[in-house]
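Practice problem: predict the structure.
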Amino acid sequence: MIQKFVVLWVFHLLQCGDITIGPTPEQPTTGAPPYPRQKSIFHRLNESHHIVYGGLDQTRKIMNDVFFISLKDDIKWVPMIIHGRRFPEPRTDCAHWMIDEKLYIWGGASATSLLSDLWVLDFEQQEWTKMTQSSTIPSPRQAPSIVTDGSTIYLFGGRSRRALQNDLWKLVISGNTGTWMLIEQNPTGTAPLL
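Answer:
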């Protein structure tokens, strides 16, 4: 029998000489929470709302759903209704970031393969768009690390089917196009020079 547990912990930073972190008592939530999952996205949308996307549920099914959660006062889960006919393939372990309250995802692992596609979710339109990627793009992979600087994204590493990766890429977003540039490819395993 599969049991369903969805627990939300809220952490507060308190400064009393030293910084301490501790859980608050479990807070009641309203709305239907997402199924329990791992390898999903949990990202801040704005001051009061966060989103959950995708992941792998308890039955090993890869999810493609989106939920909002309000963390102000009453904690409330709301599933997002997505319009349009195009959706990214369900995935886990994808790179993700926000620009102008839009969620971007790249790569990750589907049920059958590793991915290297780029999608954007416009929350206002409630619609996914597959973005064009110009130039050479990074090889398909899951679990890369990313950092953002405005509309420029840096992607490092991840795991392909055969090995861990240690290349560093730069992605510039302009409209519905992402342009990649390889900054450093270092197959010997030493740290890239920045």
